[in-house]
Amino acid sequence: MTKLVEWLLGVSLVGAAWALVSFDLLDLSLPQTYREVAWPMPLYLLVSFGCFSLATVGYRVATFNDCDEAAKELMEQIKEAKEDLRKRGLKM
Amino acid sequence: MASRKTSHPNRDSEDKYSILLPTYNERENLPLIVWLLVKYFGESGYNYEIIVIDDGSPDGTLEVAKQLQKIYGEDKILLRPRATKLGLGTAYIHGMKHATGNFIIIMDADLSHHPKFIPEFIDKQKEGNYDLVSGTRYQGNGGVYGWDLRRKLISRGANFLSQVLLRPGASDLTGSFRLYKKSVLESLVERCVSKGYVFQMEMIVRARQLNYTVGEVPISFVDRVYGESKLGGNEIVSFAKGLITLFATT
């Protein structure tokens, strides 16, 4: 099963459950509160996911490590390497 | 790490590591990356060979590679040049054809990937007998140098999207600093059809599909050529296309 198919399946199942409850498709005579809560759920979930995504990406960008020592170390090693290679006969 | 022993117990192991270095116009960087590889492999005692796959660089990269061969020996530096610039996947296939190692390390030749992490990759691989070990910039003390806010945002955003859509079980999908068992790399490369960043993503996704085990090691990615960075609109569009393709086909 590809990820696309997994998602379509998941969305269909959740969609079917939502429609069932919101529009009382099977005439189950559910309490009015169930229908009132279920009806805006897709929008709530979408907005929540949007907020979660922004917060997660924002957090990850803010905590993205900057490797200053690694850069310094590399610069020094480059100097050392150039010197050593010159001694060994490398013509740059 | 424990104190360095003067004998090299690692040399007795039958493992050999072939490092594939696809190059294009890396005349300046190639000697430096080779020097670093020789340094860290020498200290670790592991058996290794460096395979330079030059795609007809006009700046004379191949000539420099030949000089390095004279300095370090033809058993340590192997040259597998090609006439023109071809894809990364075919470079790996071409490089692997004559590789004598049972492990393959792929990395960039522009010094953004530092060979000091290779012993850590090897330790990690042995720890869990992983089929592949991937360097990650996003976890532990992994990180980047030389990236501005825009690039970090795009990188994290794209990675988040990939995680949501593909759930790959690895934190850094577009990274190209990895250690593979040779048989694993061979079977993956023949199955992968994408290009560029997406190729590296596809390798990990297909690895998971085939139930290969993936280990991760935090790495630092030092971007020295940021001025010529190629993270423009075209790249983003092709990434998005590739991501959707992987989403729909894997």
UniProtKB/TrEMBL annotation, chain A:
InterPro entries: DPM3 (IPR013174). Signal peptide: none annotated. One of its GO terms (cellular component) is endoplasmic reticulum membrane. The chain crosses the membrane at residues 43-62. Keywords: Coiled coil, Endoplasmic reticulum, Membrane, Transmembrane, Transmembrane helix. Residues 64-91 form a coiled coil. It is found in: Endoplasmic reticulum membrane. Pathway: Protein modification; protein glycosylation. It is a multi-pass membrane protein. GO terms for biological process: GPI anchor biosynthetic process; muscle structure development. Component of the dolichol-phosphate mannose (DPM) synthase complex. Stabilizer subunit of the dolichol-phosphate mannose (DPM) synthase complex; tethers catalytic subunit to the ER. Belongs to the DPM3 family. This is Dolichol-phosphate mannosyltransferase subunit 3. It comes from Cyclopterus lumpus. The lineage of its organism: Eukaryota, Metazoa, Chordata, Craniata, Vertebrata.
From TrEMBL, chain B:
Gene3D superfamilies: Spore Coat Polysaccharide Biosynthesis Protein SpsA, Chain A. Keywords: Endoplasmic reticulum, Glycosyltransferase, Magnesium, Manganese, Metal-binding, Transferase. One of its GO terms (molecular function) is dolichyl-phosphate beta-D-mannosyltransferase activity. Pathway: Protein modification; protein glycosylation. Signal peptide: none annotated. It is found in: Endoplasmic reticulum. GO terms for biological process: dolichol-linked oligosaccharide biosynthetic process; GPI anchor biosynthetic process; muscle structure development; protein O-linked glycosylation via mannose. One of its GO terms (cellular component) is endoplasmic reticulum membrane. It is an enzyme of class 2 (transferase). Its cofactor is Ca(2+); Mg(2+); Mn(2+). It catalyses: a di-trans,poly-cis-dolichyl phosphate + GDP-alpha-D-mannose = a di-trans,poly-cis-dolichyl beta-D-mannosyl phosphate + GDP. InterPro entries: DPM1-like, Glyco_trans_2-like, Nucleotide-diphossugar_trans. Belongs to the glycosyltransferase 2 family. Transfers mannose from GDP-mannose to dolichol monophosphate to form dolichol phosphate mannose (Dol-P-Man) which is the mannosyl donor in pathways leading to N-glycosylation, glycosyl phosphatidylinositol membrane anchoring, and O-mannosylation of proteins; catalytic subunit of the dolichol-phosphate mannose (DPM) synthase complex. Component of the dolichol-phosphate mannose (DPM) synthase complex. This is Dolichol-phosphate mannosyltransferase subunit 1. It comes from Cyclopterus lumpus (Lumpsucker).
